[in-house]
């Protein structure tokens, strides 16, 4: 059997202090994590305002489309075979996305192309190093 150093009371106190210190750091880190994430997102939004606006616009259109699909779903009575509303809509509205897409594409495509070009350029520089 190997001769081992006996664990003293001092060793236990030091270990306990280190565990308490580590737990305090963990607690502080968990508390600061949301603010760090929002700060990072805010900095990214400040560096790329057009991309942020484009993403917000696309998200809004997508949420509108989802909301429209959910609210225009047939009722349970209509799905069971009965008349849902008793009459058809006379006017058919075009989807908002179909109306906005031709306007947005010429604005968004060049920006997306430049972002991809910059990204590929940084990858190429990294490969050369």
Structure, described:
With 129 residues, this protein is mainly α. The protein has a domain at 10-47. 77% of the residues lie in helices and 0% in strands. The protein has helices at 9-47, 49-71, 76-79, 96-128. The longest helix has 39 residues, at 9-47. It is elongated and about 80 Å long. The mean pLDDT is 75.
Could you spell the SSE succession in H and E letters? HHHH
**Which stretches are poorly predicted, pLDDT < 50 over at least 5 residues?**
none
Structural class call reads mainly alpha
* Mean pLDDT over the residues: 75
Name the overall outline.
elongated
Estimated helix fraction: over 70%
Number of helices: 4
Strand content: under 5%
The rounded Rg comes to: 29 Å
Could you tell me the number of beta strands? Answer: 0
Describe the biggest sheet?
Answer: none
Distance between the termini: 54 Å
